[in-house]
Amino acid sequence: MTIDxxxxxxxxxxxxLILTHTRPDGDTLGSASALCSALRRMGxxxxxxxxxxxxxxxxxxVSEFFAPAGFDIEHIVSxxxxxxxxxxxxxxxxxxxxxxxxxxxxxxxENTLLEADRAACxxxxxxxxxxxxxxxxxxxxxxxxxxxxxxxxxxxxxxxTENTFLAAAELARAGADTAGLSRLFFRTFSxxxxxxxxxxxxxxxxxxxxxxxxxxxxxxxxxxxxxxENDMDDIAALAGKLEGHQVSVTIRENxxxxxxxxLRSGAAVNxxxxxxxxxxxxxxxxxxxxxxxxxxxTLGLLLPVIEREMKG
Length: 312
What we know:
This protein is an alpha/beta fold and 312 residues long. The chain has two domains: 3-186, inorganic pyrophosphatase (n-terminal core) (Alpha-Beta Complex), CATH 3.90.1640; 191-311, Roll (Diaminopimelate Epimerase, Chain A, domain 1). Helices cover 39% and strands 16% of the residues. The chain has helices spanning 3-12, 26-41, 59-62, 121-133, 138-151, 162-173, 178-186, 191-202, 219-225, 271-277, 295-311; strands at residues 16-19, 46-48, 75-79, 97-100, 111-114, 205-207, 212-217, 247-253, 259-265, 281-282, 286-291. The strands form two sheets. It has a six-stranded mixed beta sheet with strand order 6-7-8-9-11-10. Strands 2-1-3-4-5 form a five-stranded parallel beta sheet, with helices on one face. The chain starts with a helix and ends with a helix.
């Protein structure tokens, strides 16, 4: 689908339940909530599936959009979800429209609006709202600024394009609280989060003469520092601050015999290819997967694959 195709489909139908992905981040939550708001402005019945993993940091922005009990669902839309493995806990159903920016999207939906050159799904939703309404209102601008800024590390990541900055400027013109939101999401941290960052930095490991840097977050580290899920936003970015590396790996122990892996790289290495081997996916320079193993075993499985990818 194109933006225009998706806009026609949304105008034609009603009763939308909008999905965000498991362990929801600012892009899926901000984008889905902005879309929900825009649909309500059209007089459409629209609500978000109540994702139980939404953290306290994001809850004030999205809770008003959660579906009430007995919400009459006619159509299901997913936002920023690349595969059925990322459906929110407790959801069962068929997605009719998937809006996404991940090139690894598996094509699970009946219709897909996929723009893989976008840094954040929020950029796509902004274009969609422009088509539906001529522009976002103030609340939607805030939500989309959260989406775009958090998925780009406050415009620092390599996925940022000219269009990303144009989108941010448009959101600022529409009234987004850029200063307040940037302070909240990028400059305000709990003592527990800072303690975890200290543990992460002191425990970084390097391989291949520093070309690979690894951050392992164990359950013991979580217990010792006292962090909650609310403190874990963008934890995968920490390892990537070490100079001289080409690939950064964050392995987070889940506690159910699995580890969540986040991979980041420069343009020379496609980490999406690495993640895909383990059933995951993402972008060329930012990808992830879940491995059924403990932290050390997960690292042992990953390193040979990454090294092979780096050697080409």
